Amino acid sequence: MKGADSSPTAARSPTAVAPQTLCKRHSPDNPGLAESENAPLSLHNKRQRTKSGSDVIEPLVSSCQDSAIPAPDCSSPLANGKENGGLSPHCAATLEYVTQLPEGCSGGGADPSVLEPSNLTSACEPDEELEDDDNYLDSSEEELEDELTLTNNEDEESCGEDDQSVISSVTVGSTCSLRSVASEALSTICINEHGLAANEDGSLLYAETPAPSPLPSFTPSLFSHVPPSINFCQYNEKTVDLPVIIGRLLKWRFTNITPLIVRRTITNSGFKITKKTLQWCGTWGKHMKSPCFKSVREFQKINHFPGTFQIGRKDKLWKNFLRLQTKFGKEEFGFIPKTFVLPGDMKALKATFDKEGVKKKWIVKPPASARGTGIQVVHKWPQVPTDTAVVVQRYISRPYLINDTKFDMRIYVLVTSFHPLRIYLYQDGLVRFASVQYNNASTSLADRYMHLTNYSVNKSSSSYTHNADAGQCQGHKWTLKSLWGYLKAQDVDTSALWSRVADLVIKTIISGEHDIVVRTRKNVRSRYSCHELFGFDVIIDERLRPWLLEVNISPSLHSASPLDHSVKGPLIADLLNMVAFHVPDKLSQQQQTNLLADLNLGEKVSGLCLDRRIYTRLLTPDEQLKHVTINAMSRSEYLTAAIENLTPDDVRHMIMAEDELHRAGKFTRIFPTAETHQYFGFMEKPRYYNRLMDAWENKYSGCREKAIENIEALCADKFHLRVPPTFKMPKVTVSGGFKVTPRLPFSPQLGKSPPSLPPHQPPPKLLTQPQRGKKKAPLLRRSRRVKLSTHPLKPAVVSSFFYLRGISAGHAGAEEEEEEEEEEECVTDTEEMRVEIYAAPESEASLLARDKKGAVEQIEHLSICDEK
Ligand code: ADP
Predict the structure, then answer these.
(1) Is it the case that residue 412 has pLDDT exceeding 60?
(2) How far, in Å, CA of 30 to CA of 33, rounded?
(3) What sections of 475-560 are H helices per DSSP?
(4) Ligand 1, residues 549, 551, 827: which to mutate, most atoms within 8 A of Cβ?
């Protein structure tokens, strides 16, 4: 711990004072200042200054809370979209903040025809409607990326975008629909007379104590004949000990980056962490290359979706965002500061510098890094590196300050499914302050303690002050809830702010949605397998507009202080509960029945273990037909048609959605809601399950009990377990208690010769070519680096014949630092893979040689591992 509040540095910490004295110049009691050029503007202000200084009278955002938003005259491309039934909510019926656009700026200069989704993705377009394909055909990552790569935004510069001049409208239709969700989450938060974050009834926000006695070990589903899920307690709690026979099955795969708080949570909830088994049911690791997701078995869960680097890399995030900005304008997509991706955008950036001179500030970042590494703020052209790949982003030079100090927010977002899209926003998060007071002068740009808010950067500053108390607004790290309490005390409309954050979260996820859905379809076999926690870094400018800085696909869960624990402890328990872990389906029906009785889990359940039928992607022909039919309808048509004759597959989706919502804890579902159909127009194409959920929410969002009742009536008849005849249940062979017998790689000691290859396959060069300059490796096992996507043995081929163990290497050092650092691993999608190849036992090889289906089955034997 460095320094305390009494230390001389305390005066520089964001606040250590009572709320009423906080941030005086922002005080609502000081209206004169609120009108001044530099004063932060409250969301309540009706008068906003335009760039030219003239006042624009704007209606209050709260006016759009009225359910009857007048149908606006929409020139928005969405205006006539059928998703909106002719009414585009995206047209700003009510704009809260509007600064004038420079003339001629129409929201993007790239040739829209180049950016048509059809031009971008036609080659990789899957058959979206037909979900039964089990399509594991390989397609290279490069292909997909090329298709999604956009041209530069060279001529867009006329917008002169920075935080002073950018279009700053609020997408009223969508944010208003989220406003009630936001208000609900924030309504009770305030700061009490002792300066502590509290509820309105006076109870402290962070006063929860761990449960004194063990918590139940299972959470029953809301529905009959749906197995219960493991109940996760928090890192400092315990669940009731499980019967040994179940405990043996609950294996968690160790990775070097599994955060301690996750390890504690899972071990206290009955899991055993191990490196050695291939029969693991869960893991928390790095992002993997898309083809590696094929190795995830149907009883396993992994904390990523394929392709999320599309939003997790700074360069890709911008390209995806720019595509939507070009199509829908800055009114909808104006929340990421203008960015240039070098070297591609070098000419355009140079032209901008030439035009603007040194008056604008930019921030230079590596495209796939984290923790503030390699970041600098610049304002002159020679400061821009021209020899490396970087992103150069407009610097938000007038951030909202608290005690003259800059901060950013870490927002946690959970996506449990991309099709249908289900997005949850966590109610708490972190607020990270710079350790030196802010100063906009060009001469201070080199001061990283002033301009960067990363903990990794600021922790080494002599003025950094820790904050151990989650409820206190003091030191250089606060909880998000404390910030809301603080801002409320400043008379800021926090619900409006939070709903804008929710809006930017949804739009950002949508910007990567298409590619992720395509990759998931190609590489993930079960709906059970994937979920992902994202860390959104958001900064607020002096006009209280949120700006997205980046999205982390492996947000740090490292917890070094009670404050971290208060936020991340409940976060991880809620997350694991929501995504529902089941006991793997390795127990006989008799064993399950006995255990259900012993555990007193009720009569509604017929099985204790995972039921793969609930998560299958297979569809009957009738179900496929319904997908096609609904996708061809207008909203007014599908609102009724989608839910009047639910299919078993529909019911399975409802089960997942309702159970998830029921277990959401402090997560708030922001997509789907009854209003989020307003976002459908931003998606590349209509998606059946999103429409189904829209119809469901439209009918039942106000009466959940009725929704649950209707589904339960079908579940009681086991309607949801009716699967296509092609579905195969796994075989469970148990004798007197299940024994885990992991399928280990072929051992040289027990060795047989490498399998002979079928005639149509190329020889596996990796097995026969010794590494140059190195001692010849043992005959049956070699390990070397290969770039999977370009290697002549494509992953699918490799994996058909060999055990392939691969995971992205990440950047050196990320793993060791995880428990030390606050920040997250960086993401790359171009790094090499370490692939360990083992000769497969002959019997398996010959099985695989038969056909592609055999190869797909073999994928079940693959194991994912971190690079050692
Ligand atoms: P990293 O992944 O290395 O953390 P970020 O994009 O999050 O990179 O930037 C690091 C820090 O730099 C942020 O936490 C924020 O304080 C500051 N920063 C980044 N981009 C901007 C920007 N456009 N304007 C102002 N500050 C920024």
Answers:
(1) yes
(2) 6
(3) 480-489, 494-523
(4) 549
Cβ(303)–Cβ(296) below 8 Å:
no
Assess contact for 19 and 473: CB atoms under 8 A.
yes
Tokens representing 15?
A: 């606040």
d(CA 472, CA 639): 47
Task: Look up residue 764 and give its amino acid.
Answer: P
Residue 88 Rama label (left phi>0; alpha psi -120 to 50; beta): beta
Q: Can you tell me which residue has the tokens 């395509």?
A: 518
From CA 353, how far away is CA 398, in angstroms rounded?
20
Q: What pLDDT score does 177 carry?
A: 66
Specify whether the CB–CB gap between 233 and 211 falls below 8 A.
yes
Query: For residues 157-178, b (16+ Cβ closer than 10 Å) or e, as one string?
Result: bebbbbbbbbbbbbbbbbbbbb
Asked if the model's pLDDT at residue 800 lies above 60, the reply is no
Answer whether the bond into residue 672 is a cis peptide, omega within 30°: yes
Is beta strand 251-253 parallel, antiparallel or unpaired with respect to 272-274?
parallel
| 315 and 366 Cβ atoms separated by less than 8 Å | no
Residue 465 in this model has a pLDDT that exceeds 50: yes
pTM for this predicted structure:
0.72
Ligand 1 midpoint to CA 600 (Å): 51
How far away, in angstroms, is 510 Cα from ligand 1 center? 22
Task: Read off the DSSP letter of residue 863.
Answer: -
C-alpha 508 – ligand 1 centre gap (Å) = 17
> Residue 397 — φ and ψ, nearest 5°?
-85, -10
Separation between Cα atoms, residue 266 and residue 275, nearest integer Å? 15
Helices (H), 357-493: 448-451, 455-458, 480-489
Distance 748 CA to ligand 1 centre (A): 50
The residue count for the chain: 868
pLDDT digit string, tens, across residues 49-80: 333 333 332 322 223 333 333 333 333 333 33
Residue 850: per-residue pLDDT: 38
Strand pairing report for 282-283 and 190-191: unpaired
Average the pLDDT over 162-188 and give the result: 56
Name the helix (H) or strand (E) containing 603.
Answer: none
Give tens-digit pLDDT for 588-644. Answer: 999 999 999 999 987 888 899 999 999 999 999 999 999 999 999 999 999 999 999
| Measured distance CA(338)–CA(419) in Å, rounded | 30
> Which residue has the least CA distance to atom 12 on ligand 1?
452
Span 730-758, pLDDT tens digits: 777 554 343 333 332 323 333 333 333 34
How far is Cα 265 from Cα 283, in angstroms, rounded to an integer?
13
N-terminal to C-terminal alpha carbon distance within the chain? 33
Residue type, 138: D
Task: Say whether the peptide bond before residue 795 is cis (omega within 30 degrees of 0).
Answer: no
List the structure tokens of 114. 């180049």
Residue ranges lining ligand 1, Cβ < 6 Å: 337, 363, 365, 369-373, 375, 393-396, 408, 452-454, 537, 539, 549-550
Nearest 5°: phi and psi at 302?
-130, 150
- Which amino acid type is present at position 814? A
Ligand 1 atom nearest the C-alpha of 552 is 2
Share above pLDDT 70 across residues of the chain, in percent, rounded to a whole number: 64
Tell me how far apart the alpha carbons of residues 686 and 680 are, in angstroms, rounded to a whole number.
7
How far CA 608 is from CA of 603, 604, 665, 817, in Å, comes to: 11, 11, 23, 39
CB 778 within 8 A of CB 839: no
| Residue 697: pLDDT over 60 | yes
Average pLDDT over residues 139-145: 34
Please state the φ and ψ torsions of residue 118, each to the nearest 5 degrees: -65, -35
Q: Are 24 and 489 in contact (CB under 8 A)?
A: no
Please state, in angstroms and rounded to a whole number, the distance separating the CA atoms of residues 654 and 708: 9
Q: What letter represents residue 771's amino acid? A: Q
